[in-house]
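Appendix B. Worked example

We walk through a single record from start to finish. Start with the input: the chain for Penicillin-binding protein, Micromonospora endolithica, length 702.
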Amino acid sequence: MTRALEKLMTVLIAGVLAGLVLAAAALPAALVFGIGFSTFAAPYAELPNSLRTPPTAQRSNLYANDGTTLITSFYQEDRVDVGLAEVTPVMQQAIIAAEDARFREHSGVDVRGVIRAFTVNQRDGATRQGASTLTMQYVRNVLSSDPRLTERQRRAATEISKARKLQEMRYALAVERELSKDEILTRYLNIAYFGAGAYGVAAASKRYFSKAPADLTLAEATLLAGLVRSPDTDDPINGDADSALRRRGYVLDRMVELGQLPAEQADLARVEPLNLRPSETPNDCTAVPEGHNDWGFFCDWFTRWWNTQPAFGATVDERQLSLRRGGYSIVSSLDPAVQRATTEQVRRVYGPDDRYAAPTAVVQPGTGRVLAMAVNRNYGVAGNPVGQKNHPNTVNQLVAGGGAITGYQAGSTFKLFTMLAALESGLPLRTEFDAPDRILTRYPVDGPTSCDGYWCPRNASSSVDGRHSMWTAFGLSVNTYFAWLTERVGADRVVEMAERLGIVFRSDDDARLARHGAANWGPFTLGVSATTPLDVANAYATVAAEGTWCAPRPVISVTDAAGRPVDAAAPDCRQVVDPDVARAAADAARCPVGDQSMYRQCAGGTATRLHGQLGRPVAGKTGSSERFETETVVAFTPQLAVATMAANPDDPRDAVGRAAQTRMVTAVGEVLGFALRDQPVQDFVPPSEATAFGVTGARAGN
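Next comes the structure step. The output line below is what the pipeline stores for this chain.
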């Protein structure tokens, strides 16, 4: 058949399929395929006039903060699109030889192939040859994965039938008018399924040979090219390796027939063994790298964060679909070295099989970036012994909270919010009060801390009774001083300050009190509300950043499949406390951990050895809940904040005991020391004398 005749036939087919002479012209085409027009007319007419090509589903990759260490991937289809220049020429030749030898010559519909298929099918009385060009196969792949088509349209477009062939021809002709041959080949190589869960040539090269498509050998390229016909049955990993080898031989023969390859070279490739080097792309947080199971908790928190971001969709379902199809490259804030050090220290507090947990968070002030999240648990869905919900295995978010995890009582670490509220109201750090062993307040409560229906807390030890300023009361954790201070400023202002610094009320009871009973929530200053290590670390990081609160963030950057940055990754920060007020709070917070305030007003603390352990300016606080059911330690420098809590997540009333606090202080100091090992020593900025002492001029006696 001459080239001119082929072109004429192509034009005629195009005319038929475009419906230019619908009733008359469709008849010859229908007769060629042995069907009547009514068989395909209705669904065919419902299809759009041109092929809509949504972006192919691509996997998203989550990296550590170095931008290269893969934490895990997320995908519905394991695919990474690549340009044609990234695919070795022999792979390009092999796929054309295997699927459409005349790809470079036809216009989307191969007239020779159509006539040959018709002849064979008529002779055999069955559909044995389909005459699908590579362009038509591309069309079929697009239609099968286009989320915008209705189910009826998708069935009509992808069903195994002669009518479908006409539909594919219609679209193929349109595609060939819009795209170059190289563009079509590129799209085909990226959308085709190669078996073993690998979509596209890049994923297939990695899946079977652990290499990039640019590095494929002749034997490897022809093997992959042979798989697209029957990717499930010919898959040499999970299917029939012998069949895969036969298909490779077929592709080699076709390349020789087409003059793409000398016979001698094909013979050498034919006798090569498979030489598979399989590698499987991880999918989801339970597939973090071996030896790094602890990354799973950070990964889990990342997905929860992603689900809240409008930049990735209007609903949670849309955002998850975007993560698993959008081809994002995500550089997280996770620092593998700091994560490893944090996990090691956490497991020195409690082992992975201990019923008690020590969830810990490391936060960077001024950005909200979370460098590490660790807990002495295995991240996974494996079952636990009867009665053990969260140990040794769990996927519950013990560090950041969410779902069934509302948090743990943080004890006296919440005194920070009372101090900040007092400072903001105009009370200076020097504000003094004779703190008794027990104090009766105006706040109505029930339970063991009630005296005739009103809250009457007492100090942990009578040794701290007496006259105190905010410096000494915070350092020695004097309960009655902070109960008195709460009355001075108002409990509702204390609760509001905590919310300003990012404390989230996850339990229904806490949320109700915060909304409707904050004015009478005096005990709040002693940390009776459930919270998480991440909330506590970030609240103290706000003080470290001189009053700038930043939303906790698991990412440094997010780029979409086209390499465009996504704004959701940018820090979300705002000034929530006056810088001088924050400096004053930080100055007092140096007392509990054995450091000294800028005005040398500290007189002891509850974790005094931390400063000596770290060897640089540091601030922080310890906290114990009622009956030592939970323990909390938080410490910070201007560059970093670390918080750890001890609790039994399965039974919050199961007291961890006071002894845990000593190990926790050591752990926090070790994490800070390791994370800051390469950073310069940085001191806190002193507060003004007005905020410290309530004076505007030089203090008498200075």
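Two observations about the output. Residues 16-42, 697-702 have pLDDT under 50 and may be disordered. The radius of gyration is 34 Å.
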